[in-house]
Specification:
Blueprint: H1 3-6, H2 13-16, H3 20-35, H4 42-53, E1 57-61, H5 68-78, E2 83-87, H6 95-98, E3 99-104, E4 109-114, E5 121-125, H7 132-135, H8 139-144, E6 146-149, E7 152-155, E8 161-166, H9 179-182, E9 185-189, H10 196-203, H11 220-232, H12 237-253, H13 260-276, H14 284-295, H15 304-317
Parallel strand pairs: 1-8, 1-9, 2-5, 5-8
Antiparallel strand pairs: 3-4, 6-7
Length: 321
């Protein structure tokens, strides 16, 4: 990549965004960098990038050993973000995530000890292994980008993004995420296995780069600028109404209620997808492409194997603008 693509943006650039062509090149450079650590998963990398550029939280659902943690760490390093990881277990407490006030004997007062949530990219690894009370500690953080501890509300760093991984629900020791929390995730995805050629290379001893060695393509201000650029991409009224009709059709096809938050997230994901594709406008294809990963984790009353077919049916039954 050219030097002007990989350079870090100055902090003033976040306010006005960047040129869409330059933004697409930067996103391609980020995907290239992450691909050196997560081999053979380009589609998964671009899907995750779409969510983060849309300023959304990401839920990764897959079996252990599929590369969920490696992908999250690689994204954080490639975007120059402060990164914290929480390994969720059945004895994890809410204060282990948010922090707590600790009494200082020397000063005779309480001091705030910030938890790992005070970061820019938080990985909640195996979130559905944590009990419901601990899962709920993230609700305010994900919605308001702030946490309240001892009746004091503290703002979180910008940007603040959560990537949560969860194991399949049929595995032992998992707790289902409540629908109120699922609704705060803009997008869910599976990483899947790489093709046989990549697997063979891995088995033969060829490994990707360690996530910690990936050079930063941008910094936090650069990500804020990309998010602002995506937010400003024009969405024609006909495309906006198409997204709304598609959500309405899904509600009539499946036992699900799609919130206004979901509909907002869907348009934001479509804008981010258009930016990654190198366009300066949002097309109906962008809405369709974002729809399955945006709605899949919300279909909790539908068998996982039937969700893709239901979504495809809703798309086919909704007239294009």
């Amino acid at each position: 990549m050219a030097a002007n693509v990989t350079r870090k943006l100055d902090k003033n650039s976040a306010a006005g965004g960047v040129d869409p062509v330059q933004a697409a090149a930067q996103l391609a450079a980020i995907a290239d960098a992450v691909s050196t650590a997560v081999l053979g998963r380009r589609m998964a990398i671009e899907t995750a990038l779409t969510c983060l550029v849309a300023d959304g939280h990401l839920l990764i659902e897959d079996v252990p050993g599929s590369g969920k943690t490696a992908l999250s760490a690689a994204l954080a390093h490639a975007m120059g973000l402060d990164f914290q990881r929480v390994q969720c277990t059945n004895d994890l407490l809410p204060a282990d995530i948010t922090g707590l006030s600790v009494f200082n004997r020397d000063s005779g007062s309480f001091a705030m000890r910030e938890g790992p949530v005070f970061t820019q990219l938080l990985l909640a690894d195996e979130l559905n292994r944590a009990p419901s009370k601990t899962q709920s500690a993230l609700l305010q953080a994900m919605e308001e980008r702030a946490v309240t501890i001892d009746r004091e509300t503290r703002a979180l760093p910008q940007p603040f993004l959560v990537i949560a991984t969860q194991n399949p629900s049929e595995q032992i020791g998992t707790f289902d995420l409540p629908e109120s929390q699922l609704d705060r995730f803009s997008l869910s995805m599976e990483i899947g296995r790489p093709d046989h050629d990549t697997q063979a290379a891995i088995l033969a001893g060829m490994r990707g780069h360690d996530a910690g060695t990936i050079p930063a393509v941008i910094d936090a201000a650069g990500l804020l600028a990309l998010q602002e650029t995506a937010r400003r991409l024009p969405v024609d009224d006909a495309v906006m109404r198409y997204a709304l009709r598609l959500a309405d059709r899904m509600e009539t096809s499946a036992p699900v209620s799609l919130s206004v938050r979901f509909r907002t997230q869907l348009v934001r994901l479509a804008q981010a997808g258009a930016l990654i594709a190198g366009r300066d406008f949002v097309a109906p294809d962008d809405v369709q492409h974002a729809f399955l990963p945006a709605v899949r984790h919300r279909l909790v009353r539908v068998e996982p194997s039937a969700r893709a077919e239901l979504v495809a049916g809703a798309i086919a039954a909704t007239d294009l603008p």
